Amino acid sequence: MRIAMQKHVSYYRFVVLFFNCMLTFGSYFCFDIPSVLQDQFQGVRTILCVLGFCSAVTVSILDKVGMKQLGLDGAIQEESKKVRVQDIRRLPLRYWLLVLTIMFFYNGVFPFVADASKFIQDKYAGYDQRTASYIAGAVYDSSLVLSAVVGILIDYVGLRGILAVLCAILTLPVFALLAFTLVPPLVSTLWLGVTYSFAAASMWPSIPLVVPQATIGTAMGLATSVQMIGIGLSNLLVGRILGTKSSESKIPLWRWQQMMIFMLANTIACIVASVILNIVDKKQGSTLNKMTKRRPPVESESRDEADRTPILNDEDDRNSIN
């Protein structure tokens, strides 16, 4: 009976995971598709966005049903009632360091991919717009191939904090090659796709490990907001660095070098934030760097006391004004 229940839970989780992946498929497709293919896939984009909306509704229903079957709906609702907007400041230091790590890493990825096609055409000879767009898209192509395998590997090994540092360090040569060498750009975009895959699989899933369970939604949403603010500001700065409003005119190479140096600066900031994150995490029990699959079952289910403690205790709740 217990084995059958475990199989049912495992099946249910994969169904939720499938619809959760489809939830953002349309928006990411619209965001990342090369510009030369926009007209060809115009109808597909609309269909995928509608599919994403339907998936969001499905995930919401499955989440409520699953929490009810596990008997956790009441406990989560009770803890969630204690969370207030002003309690964001009580989120642990590890969370904010993780958010900064994510923001700085993505500051180097998304603004680069947005302008990579133009950069390749301006710097390297023999690349038309279509070819340059395909090379720029190799970042996501390699991520498409590797993400599932990387996720399984990280679930087995753990060491998410260390992987965050390694991803940032190994991203440095990407922008250095693009800025100061004539190495074929496909090498750099594929390389960036590999580090991007490991970063996405190690950084984002670390958030639920360092915040109380009742605040996971708030923490994820806040992290996304900070990430988007960072990307938006980075795009503005990149626009100022490139100094042109026309996509047809060729941008001087020295401006592209300055842009790559800016990408390098963000990556260095990511390294600093991730190193400090690992130091703080080690002092607080090394939650991020535990070997997940090699731990005893009892230990794998335990979390740091600080992570399990609600943001508001009972005394604070009694004194709060509803």
Helical residue percent? over 70%
* CATH superfamily (homologous) name of the largest domain: MFS general substrate transporter like domains
Distance between the termini: 45 Å
Give the topology string: H per helix, E per strand.
HHHHHHHHHHHHHHH
Q: How large a portion of the residues is in β-strands, by DSSP E?
A: under 5%
Tell me what you see in this structure.
The protein is mainly α and 322 residues long. It folds into 2 domains: 1-80; 90-315, Up-down Bundle (Growth Hormone, Chain: A). 75% of the residues lie in helices and 0% in strands. It has 15 helices and no strands. It has helices at 2-23, 25-32, 42-70, 73-80, 93-123, 129-136, 138-157, 160-180, 185-203, 207-210, 216-242, 253-283, 297-301, 305-308, 314-319. Helix 1 (2-23) packs antiparallel against helix 3, helix 8 packs antiparallel against helix 9 (185-203) and helix 8 (160-180) packs antiparallel against helix 12 (253-283). The relative contact order is 0.13. Residues 294-322 have low confidence and may be disordered.
